[in-house]
Amino acid sequence: MNLPNYISLSRIFVIPVLMWILLSNRFSSANGEKEVLAALLFVAASVTDAIDGYLARRRNQITTMGMLLDPLADKLMVTAAFVTLVQFNPRIVPAWMAVVIIGREFLVSGLRTIAAQQGFTIEASDLGKFKMVLQIVSVTAAILDARWAVWQWGRFVFPMELIAKTAVWAMVALSLWSAGDYFAAFWSKIDSRVQRRRRRAFILSRRKKGNVAAT
């Protein structure tokens, strides 16, 4: 275990804490204590996603354990956040939206697993970084919207309901788009491998016929 792996592991440990804060009555919603604490915790955990990857590359500490923990932590974080929001703020995150967003995560994981078994990899989409930012905005806004439809901070006024709805709908659209992007990349790799196998089998069969004829 190295530092990047510990950071990824800490992100996993944050998940039950986040769910406990949002779903328990331990914290008060009267003054927004619950919402602010949960939002800050989610943002902090999400930022570690970039930190552990950066440290792993910078220190040359990319390990098999890290390759397992990092995507696992990401998938668990997304799943836990949107499942919890279905109960915590269903007005912003209805169940079908959570199913679409979470289903995309399972689809991508499945495609990558099949690709690895077939001996090739599917490179991360360019939409990955934008997805992470949109995920942070959508979850944070949905949490805060449960307490403030409009949040005023000093001179700044944030229409949390509008931000939350826009971000969550954009998250659904991006999930569908990126899922299609990953599937297209996967299918092109599979199709090219099938074509190469057929071409190789055809060449081998011609060689065998030529050898028979020569004898």
Written overview of the protein:
The structure is a single chain. With 215 residues, the protein is mainly alpha-helical. The chain has a single domain, classed as Four Helix Bundle (Hemerythrin (Met), subunit A), CATH 1.20.120.1760. It is 78% helix and 3% strand. A two-stranded antiparallel sheet has the order 1-2. The longest helix is centred in the last third of the chain and has 55 residues. The radius of gyration is 23 Å and the shape is globular. The relative contact order is 0.11. The model has no long low-confidence stretch (mean pLDDT 82).
* Strand percentage: under 5%
Structural domain tally: 1
CATH superfamily: CDP-alcohol phosphotransferase transmembrane (TM) domain
CATH architecture: Up-down Bundle
**Average pLDDT figure:** 82
Q: Taking strands numbered 1, 2, ... along the chain, how are they ordered across the largest sheet?
A: 1-2
Class by alpha and beta content = mainly alpha
Largest sheet: number of strands, sense, barrel closure? 2 strands, antiparallel
Helix amount, in percent? Answer: over 70%
Distance between the termini: 62 Å
Strand tally:
2
Number of helices: 6
H/E element sequence: HHHHHEEH
Task: Give me the Rg, rounded.
Answer: 23 Å
Principal-axes geometry comes out as: globular
Low confidence ranges: none
Any key phrases for this structure?
215 residues; mainly alpha; Four Helix Bundle (Hemerythrin (Met), subunit A); 78% helix; globular
State the gist of this model.
The chain is built from six helices and two strands; from the N terminus they run αααααββα.
